[in-house]
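Loading example: each entry is read as two labelled lines plus one structure line.
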Amino acid sequence: MKITQFDAPGNIAHGGGTCQFYNPVTHGLTGADVTPASAGEITWNGFPRKFLGTAPGGAADFAGAEPTLTSGHSRNQDEYLEWHVTRNGSGKITSVEFTCEGYDYYEFLGREAADILLGLYQKFISPAVRHADLFTGAQYQKLNRWNTADGAMHLTQQANNLFAEVILAAEATVRRRDAVGREVTAAIPLTKCSQFGDARRNSDPTIGSGVNGFARQGRMITLANPVGLYIDHLDDAGFRLPGDLPVDGWFQILRGTPAHTLRAVFAPPRGAAFTVSDVTIGGIPIKFGGQIAQNITMRLTGVASVANNVQNTPIPCEGAGGAVHTAIAVAASRLPTRGAS
Amino acid sequence: MPRAKSVARKKLVSEPLLDVHEIQGNILAGFNKDHQRLVGLRIRGVAEARKWLARILPHVSSLAEVYQFNALFRLRRSRLGRDPVCLVASWMNIAFSRDGLAQLTSDSDAAALPDAAFQIGLTKDRADLLGDPTPGGETDPTARWVIGGTNHPVDILMILASDDKTRLDSLVVQLRPAPMDGLSAPEIIWEEQGETRTDLPGHEHFGFKDGVSQPGVRGLISRRPRIYLTPRLLKAPGTGEIAFAKPGQPLIWPGQFVLGYPFGDRDGAMQPAPPLGRAWFKNGSFLVFRRLEQNVAGFSAFLKAEADRLSKTAGFPGISAEHLGALFVGRWPSGAPVSRTPGGDNPDLAADSLSNNDFLFTEDTPPPVFLPGVGVTAGTFPRAMEGSKGPVCPHAAHIFKVNPRDSATNLGPDIDTLTRRILRRGIPFGTPLTSLEDDGASRGLHFLSYQASIVDQFEILQQNWANNTGAPTSGGNDLIIGQTKTAARTMDLPSLVPSQGGEKISAPVEWVKPTGGGYFFAPSIGAIRDVLAVG
């Protein structure tokens, strides 16, 4: 089936205001007046915040972030970045593969283009992958062994999906006020007030806060095409091999482009005499893939149009009275035309 | 009703009483002296080192002493309207590297200190992590450092400071190892004087006021009378909001800077002091020292050339070098924040300590609400307003990169940023450059910061934020202290004209270069007395 348009899920009925999240396919996209352009980029660290140490200097729980996984179980890596660690017979890490592709896209492929789905697994995970490994009847099993125990084709954590990104951005465009009428702007209170994500993450409060800032400026907001959450870059400062050699060429983009990286691997280039376990970061040997993830910056890009174009009044928090969270059920025809106030 | 009041009172979170006679004074109070000498020592004989430590122990300045003097100094200044020149004090604090501690205690003791960066030390691996440039022909960024690093390791770092230069000289002579301490007393391997600029007091060599923003540390100097280390001027905030001592100064639990105290977690909740591997770690703090050389002529020339170029563009008509520098820093040379005075410098704003740090980055800054009876008012300067077309203060401006305030970051919400704050105690070294031409002299900043974790605080600020184009938010590198190894640093500059696009600045060279440094632990005075000096 050919996709002809994205349907924006953001026409949230919020008490009569103008929806500030729009579908550029149906409502057109004009040039933004935000400068610099990078102001629309929202970034976050790829290692799950919940596994960081609590006290100053406390060690991160790298082992807890990447336990041995079996089929049927998702990863507990919730920053829209998941990884799979491959070790050799000696227990040394030979590669760490990272993905940030939402599972909903692969479920779509499973329904509509099973052969393409299988081909992707065979190309990126193993030539040994068979159709039967991925499907139960016609039903794609996203937590199959090749996406859990033996690889990471796409995201598995329940909240790591494209829908979550879109709805988070959409709901973050809604301006909120607290019980005494003050507009809610700080990241965690806003996340809790709007209930658009997990306040314990790096990503959700940051994404929501960034989008809401544009909404407070009275802008119309959407997500940049192509919609997605991407690996922005790996900062390999401090990565060293024995003999003080750099790790040039060890981080390779496997899927996507440098601007929109969906899949990457950290592994020795062909012919290298070392394994990933031989690499140190700031003098600390790599024992877990999470140590690399901690140096990966993730990104999504929003598009915010003309400021002061919409003057919405902040509404109460979720659960504070009033029907404000009707989510995505309203038809696109009710979306405002861009530029209207 | 009285009963209900009593219950409510019990629910208040009480702040800990600080061990004012144990914590070294520079950590929480700050020496704030115009003259400061750093002395790097190497231990030769452990017995002699202990003997020397025992000799100088009474001179290790405590929080109680430094706090009391600073309070007196402020009191006199408020009456005089200027600094009281006759009020003079001289202080000394001391800190130890991992190897230094191991020699004076044991390897297992030193290994129990809870910070991975301290354990490794500021040698090639951590310098590489920080993005420090590697000289041509070398593989070690520290290879040509004048102090610290791989080739000049420091076991003990002394910080001696005074309001009076002559008395500082005397103090140095009195306290540094001498023949009376034995032939194998610690060896002085380096010393260098820091001086407040006489032409621009409080300014670093690029010409900008430094040290304006410091966090407010919670904790009590005394229970009766109840005296907070950081005076409280503002009303307490609502639930879940960040509390401030004075405008722009958030309150942070002392465990963020001194071991053995409650700390704030990443979600802002106070947590009890974590257990320590050794009892004597309590009241100690990790110290980062960086000798940062500044290329003043190069920086000035770049600003001029880039401002000339930008001034001809539609987005930055007529922009001056000073204005561009202010956008790099986030403050004008006087210290006035760009967020409050985007069109030009405002020395009066800079001089108002209740206004010069009172601004947010991502929302309109509400006026401060002072506690009744504190008897202060802030100046009537324009409030900081969020940019309607883009950020007023660029997100790669130095003060944004190292303290993004209310902005959510790549590491989480604004309250998480409190866990990254450090206490800065730096001072310039070298003479100010008085011409536009480089005179070849070495000048820069003795950067000193105290924190409870070098990894989670100082290194995050340098490596994860200042060096990173995409963090704490997207917008480029910190062109003041940011470092990259592979490409020119860049900065996204929002246009000054609303209808125009911004510019990406590309800085081909770095004007701040590390030329020395080290990671240290500043133990309590009791630990020096009972553990380090006795073995």
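Chain A touches chain B through 57 residues (CB under 8 Å).
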